[in-house]
Task: inverse folding
């Protein structure tokens, strides 16, 4: 019985964290910026790195993805893609108790 309890607890905890290659469902924040993706990413990246030093940026097909890793829950992910004359910004965050308000504020301040 103890083995089943440990296995169930492990399965539940594993389900809380998504690999960084997966962007979960709908974004928590979706905004449009007049800035092109490169300029917007250049604004957000240092602010995120100030909060979470291991934050990284990678190029995606039509913009950039900024990833702030989390040890406990899903990573916080910001997709910045070309949209009309600017960018569409989509922020994906974990459960409410794990969200980083400073990252969300940086997304809004850079718009």
Result:
């Amino acid at each position: 019985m103890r083995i089943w309890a440990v296995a169930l607890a492990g399965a539940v905890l594993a389900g809380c964290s998504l690999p960084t290659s997966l962007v979960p469902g709908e974004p928590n924040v979706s905004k449009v910026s007049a800035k092109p993706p490169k300029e917007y990413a250049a604004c957000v990246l240092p602010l995120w790195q100030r909060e979470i030093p291991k934050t990284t940026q990678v190029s995606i097909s039509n913009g950039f993805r900024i990833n702030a890793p989390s040890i406990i829950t899903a990573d916080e992910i910001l997709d910045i893609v070309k949209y009309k004359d600017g960018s569409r910004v989509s922020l994906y965050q974990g459960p409410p108790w794990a969200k980083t308000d400073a990252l969300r504020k940086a997304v809004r301040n850079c718009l």
